[in-house]
Amino acid sequence: MFASHPIHTEAVAGIVGRADVGASLFFLLSLLCYVKHCSTRGYSARTWGWFLGTGLCAGCSMLWKEQGVTVLAVSAVYDVFVFHRLKMNQILPTIYKRKNLSLFLSISLLTFWGTFLLGARLYWMGNKPPSFSNSDNPAADSDSLLARTLTFFYLPTKNLWLLLCPDTLSFDWSMDAVPLLKTICDWRNLHTVAFYTGLLLLAYYCLKSPSVETECNGKFVTNGKQNANGHSCHSDVEYRNSEIKPSFASKVENGIKNNASQRTQLPSTENIVVLSLSLLVIPFVPATNLFFYVGFVIAERVLYIPSMGFCLLITVGARALYVKVQKRFLKTLIFYATATLIVFYGLKTAIRNGDWQNEEMLYRSGIKVNPAKAWGNLGNVLKSQSKISEAESAYRNALYYRSNMADMLYNLGLLLQENSRFAEALHYYKLAIGSRPTLASAYLNTGIILMNQGKTEEARRTFLKCSEIPDENLKDPHAHKSSVTSCLYNLGKLYHEQGHYEDALSVYKEAIQKMPRQFAPQSLYNMMGEAYMRLSKLPEAEHWYMESLRSKTDHIPAHLTYGKLLALTGRKSEAEKFFLKAIELDPTKGNCYMHYGQFLLEEARLIEAAEMAKKAAELDSTEFDVVFNAAHMLRQASLNEAAEKYYDLAARLRPNYPAALMNLGAILHLNGRLQKAEANYLRALQLKPDDVITQSNLRKLWNIMEKQGLKTSKT
C-alpha cells in the first residue's frame, strides 16, 4: 500500500521532494535504532550505541526536513505505549513509584536531544520563523479568529481524505484552493467533527484502562490464560505487578499456535494502532499551524512520513476484520477489497507520474484545483518556449481568477516590455507595485522604461523610491537586494548622462554597500571608473576598471574603457592590446570596432580607422551611436562618400535628432549635393531653431547656391 500510494508522487517525482524522502530514510533508521535500544536495554552495553544512532539519525532527518525531528516523539510513544504497553492511567503511578528508571532515562535523553535540535534549528533561522506571503497560507492571514480556528481544524481532515481517496491531487494548494471556513454552518465542519471523533475513539480504545478481556492479534484472552485455541498472552495486570518488560503475543493463524522461539512475535492490535497513530499524527503536527504558521495550506510531500502510519493503520484494520469474521466469503471479500484498493492506488500513481513528466503537464493538471497559480506558472513555461501569445493569455487567465497577484502582474508587464509594448508594460508594473509596494524589480523596470522614453525626472523618482524600500518582510530578500542594487546602478547612469558625475559616484558607492554577494558587479565597477575618468581622477578610474576586470575577466566594456584610459595616459601599445582583446572576445559586436577605430584615428592611422568604422556600422547597422560615430570617423578620414552613406542611415534611425540632420546636411554640402543639404539644414533648424552652427552652415550654403544660380528657400 505504501509503495503504490499516489500521495507520494510529488515527493518522489519532484526534485524538492527529495527532502521528504531523505528525511523519511533517516526517520526510519532512527526509529529502528531506538527499537534495538529498547530490546537490548538492561541486557547489553551496546544499547547506548543504538541510542546514539537514534540521536544521530534523528539529527540527519531534521537536516533533510524539519519534521524529521518528530521521530524522537514517535520513539517515546513506542517505548511507553508499545514496548512497555503502559496505559494512560499507569504512567503517573509508574513515575510516582519510580519503577523502571531506564525507561525514564531514555525518555529524558530523547527530550533533551529533541530540545537541543529544535533550539539549534531555531538559532539557524535567526531565532524567528520564516515569513511567507499572504496567499501561501490565507487562513493565517485572516482577521477572523473563527475562520482561522475552523480552517486550521479542518485542514488535517482534508489531508486525511487525500490519504484515503487521492482522487484530486495538485502541485500547489495555496491561495483559494481550500476556501476558508468562515461560519459554524459550513457543512465541512461535519467532516472535522467526524475526523476528531474517530481519532479520539481510536486513541481511547488503545490507551484506555486495561480490562479483564484483552485482544491479542485478533484473539481474545482472559487474565493472561490460554483461550480455546491454545493461544496465550500476558495480561496487563502482570505488567503492573512485575518489572515492565516487553511481552509480545505468539502468532496464531487459523487456530494453530506457532512456537515463539521459532517465529517472530507480533505486538497486539492495540499496540500496532498506537504506533500507527503516532506515525500518522506526530510527524504531521509541524504542518498544522499549531506552533507556528507554515507557508502552505496543503503540501502533499509533507504527507510522505505520515502516510506510513496511515498505511499501517489501514492494514491493521483490514487484518483485524479478516481475523474476526468467520465466514470464508467475508474473508475473501476483505482480501479482494484490499487488493483492489492497492491496484487503484497504483493506477492513480502511474497516471499522476505522467503529470510530473514536465512542467507544462504538471501546471495544466493543477488548473482545476488552483487556477490562478497554475495558469501563472504555465505562462512562465510557455514564455520560455517562445509561445508569446499563449503565455500572455495564460497570465491574463491567472489574473482573471486573482487580480492582485503582484508576481503575475509583473510577469505580464515583463512580457509586454520584451515585446516593445511599453505603455501596457508600465500599466501592469504600476499595478504590481500597488499590490506589493516592496516589489523592487517592478520599480527597476518602470524606471528603465521611463528613462528610455526620456522621462528622466520620473525615472529618477522611481529609482530613488526603490532604493528606500526597507529590507524587512520580503518574499525573496536576495532578489530584492539585487533589484535595489540595479536601481541604484541605473540611477547613477542617469546622473552620469546628465553630467552630474559627483552625484553618480555617490549613488554607485551606495549600490556597492547594498550589493548582495550573488550580484555581478563588473558593470557597476566599470561605471565607477567612467565617472572618475570624467572627473579627471585617473588613478581612481584605473582602480575601478581593474576591479571590473577582476570580477569578470571577459567583460568587454571594461576592456574598452580601460583601453581608452591607457591611450590617454600614453600607454598606447597596452591600450591597443585591450581593444584587440575586446574584438577577440566578441567579433560580432560593432561597438568594439568603433572604439578601436577611434583609437586608430587618434593615432593618425586613417585607413585602418576607416576600415574599423565600416565594420562597426555593418555589424550594428540599427544602433544609432555606432552608425553616427562611424560616419564621423569616415569623414575625418576624408572618405566623404562613405561618410554620407552612414550619416544618411543615422538620420533615418533618428529622424527627429537635430545633430544627425545637421551632420548629414554638412556632408551633402561638402559632396556638392546642395539642395539636399539645404533641406536637411532646414529640417534641423525646425527641431532646434537657435543652433548657431546650423545657421552659419546654411548661410554659407545659400551663398554658394546663389553664385551657381540655384534657387534657395529664402528666395
Automatic annotation (TrEMBL):
It is found in: Endoplasmic reticulum; Membrane. Residues 127-199 form the DUF1736 domain. Pfam families: TMTC_DUF1736, TPR_1, TPR_12, TPR_16, TPR_8. It is a multi-pass membrane protein. Keywords: Endoplasmic reticulum, Membrane, Repeat, TPR repeat, Transferase, Transmembrane, Transmembrane helix. This is Protein O-mannosyl-transferase TMTC2. Pathway: Protein modification; protein glycosylation.
